[in-house]
Design a protein that fits this description.
By secondary structure, the protein is an alpha/beta fold. It is 40% helix and 16% strand. It has one domain: 3-Layer(aba) Sandwich (Rossmann fold). The radius of gyration is 19 Å and the shape is globular. It binds nicotinamide-adenine-dinucleotide. Nicotinamide-adenine-dinucleotide binds next to helix 3 and strand 6.
């Protein structure tokens, strides 16, 4: 098994526990996907999991051009690589593809609704929609056995808050007894699924013939308000942190648009593979706290 990552936001240390999988040694290649496409020493893959992307609202807002290029051009390189051997391929898309649709829950066959191109945040959803178009075109055009998965908020140990991901941002603040900053009134809601549930679902989908050429929501369909999430984090961390409000303008600059609610319809993936996100959010939060505790002990010891 080979992992290709340019470490632009990822960390090689996260692969420590995966160094040996099923008796084979993991090979790590530090480069971009398009550089990997040009290399002559890459194996003939039978499975491709394309997860590399410019991720996180904060990163997309700060570096919009770079994010668009990564999300579109690197996916097209990944698809070309997979086509060489007709490898079974997963393309990781996002709930951002639904844009600012207000029809809940979001169904894969729904129309998508974006704001104007002058509002940078929609560029992320549009870039992921282009990835989906390319994947489906490759399926129809050359028979690439590909599955598109639209991930909703996916959380767990090793996710960091630096790029604006809300759960690690809250946990990092709570551990340090710093205020947890909730954007807007905090009544906006999201559904959080544990990454371990999501990974199991993705693996099963890829091995299911009837999934090939399809688009699937994956995640949890149990919503929680962002202020309520902050309260749970403070409680689980035994923290003295206050929960404070921050305007969207202060967090992201003028003209930022957010969604009040985001929730997947999981009928399609449930019907095909019986998927359910089973790990409770409280368990995930506890595991994120434990992981951050261990990481900071390691840092102090070094
Ligand atoms: N975590 C979520 O809540 C969520 C939600 C929706 C969609 N997704 C999608 O899931 C996938 C994985 O996201 P994640 O949350 O694990 O984020 P992540 O930042 O942990 O993973 C993305 C990885 O891609 C790498 N990368 C970036 N550009 C690259 C390039 N050009 N070449 C090679 N590697 C590159 C980064 O270094 C990083 O390790 C992404 O496609 C993302 O859009 C995630």
């Amino acid at each position: 098994m080979t992992v290709v990552d340019d470490l632009s936001t990822g960390f090689e240390a996260n692969l420590e526990q995966a160094r040996h999988i099923g008796g084979t040694r993991l090979r790590f290649v530090k480069c971009t996907v398009s550089e990997a496409e040009q290399r002559t020493d890459m194996e003939a893959f039978d499975r491709v999991y394309h997860l590399a992307a410019a991720v996180g609202v904060r990163r997309v807002m700060q570096r919009p051009m770079d994010s668009l290029e990564v999300n579109v051009l690197e996916t097209s390189a990944a698809i070309r690589m997979a086509q060489r051997t007709s490898a079974r391929t997963v393309i990781a898309s996002s709930s951002e593809v639904y844009g600012k649709s207000t029809r809940l829950p979001f169904r894969e066959s729904d129309d998508v609704v974006y704001g104007p191109t002058s509002v940078t945040r929609w560029s992320y959803g549009c870039s992921k929609a282009l990835d989906e178009f390319m994947a489906l075109a490759a399926h129809r055009g050359s028979g690439l056995p590909v599955v598109v998965v639209r991930l909703f908020n996916t959380v767990g140990p090793r996710q960091v808050g630096r790029w604006g991901m809300v759960l690690p941002r809250f946990v990092e603040a709570a551990r340090a007894n710093r205020p947890l900053e909730v954007h807007g009134d905090g009544m906006q809601s999201r559904c959080f699924a544990d990454v371990r549930d999501v990974v199991r679902g993705i693996e099963r989908l890829l091995e299911t013939d009837a999934a090939l050429g399809g688009v699937f929501n994956i995640g949890s369909d149990r919503p929680i308000g962002i202020r309520a999430l902050a309260e749970v984090v403070v409680r689980r961390a035994g923290s003295r942190s206050a929960i404070v409000s921050q305007t969207y303008e202060a967090a992201f600059g003028p003209g930022f648009e957010d969604l009040r609610a985001r929730e997947p319809d999981l009928t399609r993936i449930r019907g095909l593979i019986g998927f359910d996100a089973t790990i409770p959010l409280e368990q995930t939060i506890d595991d994120v706290i434990t992981w951050l505790d261990a990481a900071s002990r390691k840092e102090h010891a070094a």
